[in-house]
């Protein structure tokens, strides 16, 4: 019996794997951790983080929120840009909704100690305006109509004036049709003469006004061949 126990101790069971060095086990754990981090998971069993889809309304909110402010993050919007959004997107119609209505709603939905509104407060404010703008629709249907007016929009850049092409403007700016003193301010090509077209310049050349051969005598004298010296 004792001899059988000794033989069993010398020969381990074939199902047990041999012990691996501690350094190899640490490498395996590190490789698993790196693999799980690259796949967006952890050893705790957390699933991969899915990206949040940004709606067209949220994108419009972000564009107006950062307009004119380099330090803005796009998560909050102050009153000036809120008013600009309502104006640029046509929410303000001057009848059902005015600029005063927009300012009142902004003060109503924002926190008392804050000067900005979040996206959720932004939607709440639009819902308030929608009920005034579309009185014949339910609350949700009216809000959807206002959302459509804003979705995908961007701030309108002001200060750029475009030339208006119309027959009236063209006729008023055609210098060939000018008469009197106005005609004297432009040459044949329509280019302004500057001071010479506005002020009577005194001609001290000695020639009569309107004489077309001014300076011709000097040209003839210079062009006349000189007698050869003997």
Automatic annotation (TrEMBL):
Keywords: Cytoplasm. InterPro entries: EF-hand-dom_pair, TPP/p25. GO terms for biological process: microtubule bundle formation; microtubule polymerization; positive regulation of protein polymerization. It comes from the Eukaryota. It is found in: Cytoplasm. GO terms for cellular component: cytoplasm; microtubule. Residues 21-35 have a biased composition (Basic and acidic residues). Residues 1-51 are annotated as: Disordered. GO terms for molecular function: tubulin binding. Belongs to the TPPP family. This is Tubulin polymerization-promoting protein. It comes from Chanos chanos (Milkfish).
